[in-house]
Amino acid sequence: MSERPYLHEGLLAGFGGVLSCGLLVVAGARSAVFLQVLGATLLFILAVAGLSRLERWGHVFRVRLLLAYGATFFFYASVKDTIPALGLPTRDAVLFGVDAWVFGGSTPSVWLQRWSSPAVNDVFSASYLSFHVYLHLAMAWAVVGPRVRAEAFFGQVFSAYVPGLVGYYLVPAVGPVAAYPELFTVPVEGGWVTGLNAAVVAHGSSTFDLFPSLHVYITLVLLAHDRLAHPWRFRGMLPVAGLLFVSTLVLRYHYAVDLLAGVVWFVVFRALYPRLLGVWESWRRGSGVAPAAVIPPG
What we know:
This protein is mainly alpha-helical. The two termini are 23 Å apart. This is PAP2 superfamily protein. InterPro entries: Aur1/Ipt1.
């Protein structure tokens, strides 16, 4: 097996390298955020390189694939520190302006608050949380399965995450409820599900994680994967995904344009990923012919 990195590993390492360079220039070599991002990027690269040399150990590849999850989580969480360190201004006014132009003066979250109630908020809070359940259960199912299936899943999902994270830097924003609290006259109240979701968001959000909506973008990537690889899971998650998308507006986390951006990001990713994967795998395996990007059933 080639010791060269997977596509998603190369994308994550490249993202970390570019981000480190930006922080070096803007924040300086002694800034804590630069050292953290650089250190994490180097650690990821070294860990991948080390594990790639242990291919003879049957299940080492599973640990290597999970490194991508760890690196992605780090880069996502670090956004709350890197955006201010880079001096990037928030763009909530622009996003709100687009929504107001399309929807007649405001963003849909403001209009939807008229139906706010504990029961409604509990349903949509559960829907919002379903993203994390879907992602993590799908990832767990993939990583314990056959190698081909695991590589196909991790390759798609964590390659997709990189352009999603790039979007946060292109259009930093904090969301309707944080940027325009005066527009909301009805609080989001509910039972324990609403409370759990609020706690997850409060402790797990990276603050500027709006554009594109990863709840839309990555869910679409997961659904596209499952449509071919796991049709039964695709059929089960399709209606849940619809509620999930609406929940981002009902709970006031996103502008409608964020959801549209998630769809656009997905369409572009689906168009480019097979071509990029073919070129990358040709290089990775030292072959002159690029293999087709095939998702195996499982």
